[in-house]
Amino acid sequence: MGTILKDIPDLTDRIEQGEFASLLGWLREKVHSHGCRFEPQELVERVTGRKIDPQPYIHYLSQKYSEIYQI
Q1: Quick check: 47 and 30 in contact, CB under 8 A?
Q2: What is the pLDDT of residues 12-61, one digit of tens each?
Q3: Does the predicted TM-score (pTM) go above 0.85?
Q4: How many helices (H) and strands (E) in the chain?
Q5: In sequence order, what are the residues at sequence separation of 6 or more whose Cβ sits closer than 8 angstroms to the Cβ of residue 17?
């Protein structure tokens, strides 16, 4: 989520308020409109500037479950 938050810094607040238009617009512009042209690895690299990496997702899960289970 790092790349999208650079473009839409208040995305989390918008989602919490039930406003998904900015997320959908960003996805349409950056991902959906190019999905047929590029292989997944290339598309991710074009959008984020780096190859597919599980580390950001692992970081997200670690934070989420640390808060829930107070680890």
Answers
A1: yes
A2: 999 999 999 999 999 999 999 997 899 999 999 999 999 999 998 899 89
A3: no
A4: 5, 0
A5: none
Alpha-carbon torsion, ordered 5, 11, 13, 15, to 10 deg: -140
pLDDT category, 2, cuts 50, 70, 90? confident
Tokens of 5: 């938050």
Query: d(Cα 4, Cα 43) in Å, to the nearest integer?
Result: 14
CA distance 33 to 26: 10
How many residues are there in the chain?
Answer: 71
